[in-house]
Amino acid sequence: MSQEALAKVHSRRQGIVAASGENDMRGYLIKIVAFVEKSGLYLAMLLTLVMALHVTAEIVGRRFFNYPIPGTIEIVAYFYMVSVSFLPLGYCQSRDEHVSADAFVYVIPKGLRPYAEWLGKVLSVTVCLILLWATTDMAIRQTVVGEAVRWS
């Protein structure tokens, strides 16, 4: 994101907070949302550090003491990676700083670009809903048969 666009987003957020006033409920909600966004970001940063230390300890234990930490792969895959991936999403979304591939955007005429962006968002929501349905269905089936992750 360019500096101009970032300044525009920041000034728009500041303008909303300033226009809403201190006693207005909207201003409080914006501040709460900003706090939750930043909390998710900082928690993801902390968990990244903890994950790195956990994996390092597991490698050192396995390599030098012939005793790996049991369940490291599962803990990293099921907890750390999910948290690190999804906790900062609110922060990224509020600043429009997601990773994006806009190679095709420059080929499309400027008048059609908003429609292309809209189509991309619709496709993203559709894929997310399909993934939600499929993973929920799988989780329910595995719960019914009593499947669980073993930690040892």
Gist?
Helix content is 74%, strand content 0%. With 152 residues, it is an all-alpha fold.
Write up what this structure looks like:
It is a single chain. The chain has 152 residues and is mainly alpha-helical. The longest helix has 40 residues. Helices cover 74% and strands 0% of the residues. The chain has five helices and no strands.
Layout of secondary structure:
Elements (H helix, E strand, L loop, with lengths): L2 H18 L4 H40 L7 H15 L2 H7 L17 H33 L7
Fill in the keyword field for this structure:
single chain; 152 residues; mainly alpha
Structural class: mainly alpha
What gyration radius follows from the Cα positions, in whole Å? 22 Å
**How large is the count of helical segments?**
5
Order of helices and strands: HHHHH
- According to DSSP, the number of beta strands is 0
Shape descriptor: extended
Helix content estimate? over 70%
Mean pLDDT across every amino acid position: 84
Residue runs with pLDDT of under 50 for 5 or more positions: none
**Major sheet, described briefly?**
none
Assembly type of the chains comes to single chain
- How far apart are the first and last residues' alpha carbons, in Å? 45 Å
Beta-strand fraction estimate: under 5%
